[in-house]
Specification:
Strand content: 5-15%
Number of strands: 2
Strand order of the largest sheet: 1-2
Order of helices and strands: EHHHHHE
Shape: globular
Structural class: mainly alpha
Number of helices: 5
Length: 67
């Protein structure tokens, strides 16, 4: 699963640590999400989407092989 978290974070000019604090995870989790090594749970995806004021589908992208 791909995402545009890094782009959205840079657009808002916030650090990985600031986003992590806002969505109640560690900075390492944000790093792992941005690099594609970790897929967000539904709860975390919802928190991130609400933080950025977007739909989950606008942030997380599923490849055919992911479905």
């Amino acid at each position: 699963m791909e995402n545009c978290i890094a782009a959205l974070r840079k657009e808002r000019q916030i650090s990985q640590a600031e986003l992590a604090e806002a969505v109640a995870v560690t900075r390492q989790t944000i790093i792992s999400l941005e690099s594609g090594r970790y897929n967000a749970s539904l709860l975390l995806a919802h928190r991130i989407a609400r933080y950025f004021g977007r739909a989950i589908e606008d942030i997380f992208f599923f490849a055919e092989e992911d479905i």
